[in-house]
Amino acid sequence: GIIFTNSLAAPLSIDNIEVTNVSCNGGSNGEIKITISGGTAPYTYQCRNQQDTTTNELTFTYTGLVADGYWVKIRKAWIFFYISIFMFCRP
């Protein structure tokens, strides 16, 4: 996939983003795994078309995704990151 990031404030940082593209046309086995550092838990992870999750974990994975464009927002109080991710179908 293609990844773009935009951040406001700095104590929170994105250490790694792993995108597993969907394996076939019409599939729903895509994943987005995000690892962050900094700040103090809890963190809220938000993804387009997914339920918001608040956790103390520094790594979070969205599973069961279809080929599409996604945004992910990681938030701690007023500090947040927006990430745009484009997931593709493997031929």
UniProtKB/TrEMBL annotation:
Pfam families with a match to the protein in the record: SprB
Gene3D superfamilies: Trypsin-like serine proteases (2.40.10.10)
Protein's name according to its UniProt entry: Uncharacterized protein
